[in-house]
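HUMAN: Mind making up another protein with tokenized structure?

ASSISTANT:
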Amino acid sequence: MKDYQLRVTDTADQTELTDLFERVFGERRTAEVWHWKFQASRRLLHGDQAADSLVAVDESGCIVAHAGAVTLPGWYRGRSIPFVQVCDVMVHPAHRGGIGRNNLFTVLLKALLSRAAERLPDSFRYGFPGQGPCVVGERARVYERMEMAIETVLTPERRRFSLWRVAPLPWHDARLDALWLSMRNELALGVVRDADYLDWRYASHPLQNYSLLGVSRL
């Protein structure tokens, strides 16, 4: 493998990372989306420590790979823990390859996960890779499959009368936090989905417009 310098990402890297994202994934990501995902999400931590995203730089000083980390408040068996979501893992096509674990993808991911484990030893580290990266990660033993993601679409049955009422809710409705507090002990493992999380993840999303609906009994 060539010599690469691995370092923590910096705000000055944003233009290069946007170019790399377009080269790898075929679409342009705006600076606003990068800020929302990697910077604005940190307000949910209320000052707690966050994991760092990493980049790989070649001999000429160009960024050729990136492994992102978004840290969110989590819940595990009755206690709060950090959740570190690994995302936007990308390697420039000219810098891919290598035998076994001796490739930039594996080296970068191992460094990211090791750093997160050292800084946040109680954290749950996870991601949602596509089938190809998942296979590569499993072979390199940096990924371990937990479950397959399944998309389900529910079509409600039409009735003339129902005991349930659906109505719009404001993003900071006090009942959202009350609902989370009343249900969190039923979850063995999960991201904290309180009003602050919903506001960041959906209300302030820079590309998608979401509406919040509440279901209650009449």
Summary: The longest helix spans residues 104-119. The chain has six helices and eight strands. The two ends are 65 Å apart (CA to CA). The chain has a mean pLDDT of 91.
